[in-house]
């Protein structure tokens, strides 16, 4: 299927306290995103640290996000994992709690075959009537959705597209060629947002937009309206901040950046650690060009 997602989507961080999820802070971040023009919020994607959350915490966050959003923007809940049975369960739960769409990362650690990927996505898509986005991020999962495999996955009726974060533009271009007209292509790597949009991507699912949602939205709008001069200017300005957002493993810098903006973002859950001081200086300098740094 095509047309589910167009524009900018934010891969939301999850703010934690020592006792659990900080729902008040998460709500403030949701409002910041909506005010910035973000088209969709991705909750419990990799950036949200679901691997360190309990099932109860995930369900509570989905419930809160759906109630707080109240239909204002699209809500996409991350439900994927390395156990197909659990991914199916979480997908059904997400639909029952008000998701507009599903993001399902490839199974990690198991390192399944390409045929295994097809069967996994058939199972996830078969568990819901919602649009499903598959997420290719081999640097984290150890498995890569090859273009020919994505062409097979694209034939699943409610497969809405692929969030591409392989970092390999040659592969992205070939995937785009093979799925065009069947499902959509989304950028899952902020450094490659512009080139992916230029080869047919319809949206970005961005970590960077946690910090500067309006500017990421402006970049996407410029690219989709074929204003390449403006898109390049916006992209050039954002690249240093984008680079700083990945100076350590995601979401460590994104959480630190949100704290610099005055949000109660908390710290990453172990085994992730707070941003190192030298890296914080780099992030603060890059962020100050775009927004008022308050901490």
What is shown here, in short?
With about 300 residues, this protein is an alpha/beta fold. It has twelve helices and ten strands.
What features would you describe in this structure?
It is a single chain. This protein is an alpha/beta fold. The protein has one domain: TIM Barrel. Helix content is 45%, strand content 14%. An eight-stranded parallel beta barrel has the order 1-4-5-6-7-8-9-10, surrounded by six helices. A two-stranded antiparallel sheet has the order 2-3. Strand 5 (74-78), helix 3 and strand 6 (101-105) form a beta-alpha-beta unit. Helix 6 packs parallel to helix 7 (169-179) and helix 9 (213-224) packs antiparallel against helix 10 (228-244).
Number of strands: 10
* Helical/strand content category: alpha/beta
Query: Could you give the distance between the termini?
Result: 44 Å
CATH class: Alpha Beta
């Amino acid at each position: 299927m095509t047309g589910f997602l167009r524009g900018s989507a934010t891969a939301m961080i999850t703010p934690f306290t020592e006792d659990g999820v900080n729902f008040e802070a998460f709500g403030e971040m949701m409002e910041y995103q909506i005010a910035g023009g973000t088209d969709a919020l991705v909750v419990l994607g990799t950036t949200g640290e679901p691997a360190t959350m309990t099932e109860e915490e995930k369900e509570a966050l989905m419930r809160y996000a759906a109630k707080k959003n109240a239909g204002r923007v699209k809500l996409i809940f991350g439900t994927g994992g390395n156990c197909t049975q659990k991914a199916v369960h979480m997908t059904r739960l997400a639909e029952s709690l008000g998701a507009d769409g599903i993001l399902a990362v490839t199974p990690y650690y198991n390192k399944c075959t390409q045929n295994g990927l097809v069967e996994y996505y058939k199972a996830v898509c078969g568990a819901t009537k919602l649009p499903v986005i598959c997420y290719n991020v081999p640097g984290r999962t150890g498995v890569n959705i090859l273009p020919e495999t994505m062409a097979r996955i694209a034939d699943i009726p409610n497969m809405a597209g692929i969030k591409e974060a392989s970092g390999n533009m040659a592969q992205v271009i070939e995937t785009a060629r093979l799925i065009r007209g069947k499902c959509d292509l989304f950028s899952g790597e902020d450094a490659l947002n512009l080139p992916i949009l230029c080869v047919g991507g319809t949206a970005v699912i961005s970590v960077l937009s946690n910090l500067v949602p309006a500017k990421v939205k402006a970049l996407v709008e410029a690219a989709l309206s074929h204003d390449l001069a403006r898109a390049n200017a916006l992209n050039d300005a954002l690249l240093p901040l984008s680079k700083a957002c990945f100076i350590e493993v995601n979401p460590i810098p994104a959480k630190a950046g949100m704290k610099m903006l005055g949000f109660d973002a908390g710290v990453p859950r172990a085994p992730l650690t707070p941003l190192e001081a030298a890296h914080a200086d780099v992030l603060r300098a890059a962020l100050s060009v775009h927004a008022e740094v308050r901490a």
